[in-house]
Amino acid sequence: MSLVTLLPFIVLIGAMFLMTRSAKKKQQQAAEMRDQMQPGSGIRTIGGMYATVKEVNDDTVLLDAGPGVDLLFAKNAIATVLTDDEYNRIVHGIEHDLKSDADLVPDDASSLTGNDEPADAAGASDDKPVDLGKKDAAEEPADAAEAKAEDEPKKTDGDSEAK
After folding, report:
1. Is 70 in contact with 62 (CB distance < 8 Å)?
2. Hey, is 154 helix, strand or coil?
3. Under the phi-then-psi rule, with left for phi > 0, alpha for psi from -120 to 50, and beta for the rest, what region is 114?
4. pTM for the whole structure
5. Residue 47 and residue 35 in contact, taking contact as beta carbons nearer than 8 Å
6. Mean per-residue pLDDT pooled into runs of 10, the chain (163 residues)
7. Which of 46, 70, 73, 152 is most open to solvent, judged by the fewest CB atoms within 10 Å of its CB?
């Protein structure tokens, strides 16, 4: 057999190898994440339920889903182990206090201009109206309106000579 005949099979086998390799990597990372679970960690199950880890066993995890609600899940049913900040934000609605972001965005744009004048004083100095080059229909001369009407194609009853 020639190399040209074997080339599609070689490419197919290579693609299958790469796909299975990436799937194995993802499975290994998920297994490592599940092994690092500790009591008190916030998690999300594959069903979308948020809970706190109460006890970790070999193949199972005991979860605290609320006051007096303990659930036993398989370790494979844990989708994600969340950080404390993320768990508190999602479950309890507690936002992390970011003091460094407090002064990044000003309340108004006047502080960005570099002028020491207030925004009202800067706007009041320009008393002239701004001409945007747009004219109202009332200001348009009558000759221009007639010329515009002549330029438009005339409507007919559907009989067209250009068939």
Report:
1. yes
2. coil
3. left
4. 0.47
5. no
6. 84 90 86 85 91 91 91 91 86 67 63 60 62 67 57 62 57
7. 152
